[in-house]
Amino acid sequence: MESRSRMIIGCGYVGIPLAAAFHAAGDMVFPTTRSQQRARQFEQHGYRPQIADVTKPETLRSLPDADTVVFAVGYDSASGASREDVYAEGLKNVLDHLPEATRRLVFVSTTGVYGDADGQTVDELAPCDPARPGGQAFLKAEQYLRNHPVWSNRSVILRMAGIYGPKRIPRSADIQAGNPIPAPGGGALNLIHVDDSVQAIRLAADAETFSPIYIVSDGTPVDRRDYYKEVARLLHAPEPTFEEPDPDSPAAKRAGSDRKMSNQRLVTELGFQPKYPSYREGLAAILS
């Protein structure tokens, strides 16, 4: 495949391995960052960093002509901006400043845009009814993108399940310490290893034909408590104990949206083959 130029807006937990994968394939990589220090680190990897902040349109006026743009901005609570400022208005600001040369825009969204499915399987055709502010902000961003007169036809929305990987195993410190885990009984946890999220983005970036939206998960939902028990086993920690979360806590709100995500469209249309087809393989690779 011929080399291409790739701009990654928000080069964090997913963007860093994505940049490395693009670079290894011979592509020119333009990561954005708000930090001069981070920009110097990117330069040492052979990238061409851009100082930009999606919440400040004046920093987006000189974006490079990139074949592919991946919007994978994470939320920094210390920034003082709201999730809507970052995800929805931030994407809108980028859309207003993207060079016409851009062939493909990949927007990294979340399965948090869906509502409760009472434990049933959910695909891309299911209605969206997000209960939490993050999901609501992502859904607003998706609507900006799908209604845009230019970029709607050149974009792919990837609704990511819970991303895990090295240095990102939720509750591992609590499990090692023997602290009770605030997890209600039952409820499916939908996951995607960070390496497989990178694979999905690369497939979406280069597909000749594609649907506007894909769910990105490993396709193997797991009961939350079974997941934490496997973490404990691999860490040689005591069997975890559980407690009901505070009704107003993020954990309770996540658990209140019980659904099993289907990745069949991604598998069938884009040829997605997860390296880690379930949490078992993914956790074992990280913790063993």
Structure description:
- This protein has 10 helices and 15 strands.
- The chain is of the alpha/beta class.
- A 7-stranded parallel sheet has the order 3-2-1-4-5-7-12, sandwiched between helices.
- Helix 3 links the parallel strand 4 and strand 5.
- The longest helix has 15 residues.
- It is globular.
- The chain starts with a strand and ends with a helix.
Mean pLDDT: 94
Shape, please? globular
Percent of residues in beta strands: 15-25%
> What is the CA-atom radius of gyration, in angstroms?
19 Å
Along the chain, the helix and strand elements come as EHEHEEHEEHEEHEEEHEEHEHEHH
Short description:
This protein is α/β, with parallel strands linked by helices and 288 residues long.
Could you give the topology of this structure?
Elements (H helix, E strand, L loop, with lengths): L4 E5 L5 H10 L3 E6 L2 H9 L5 E2 L16 E4 L11 H15 L6 E7 L10 E2 L10 H14 L8 E6 L1 E3 L7 H6 L3 E2 L5 E2 L1 E3 H13 L6 E4 L5 E2 H11 L7 E2 L6 H6 L4 E2 L2 H7 L8 H9 L1
Parallel strand pairs: 1-2, 1-4, 2-3, 4-5, 5-7, 6-15, 7-12, 8-11, 9-14
Antiparallel strand pairs: 10-13
Helix pairs in contact: 1-6, 3-4, 7-10
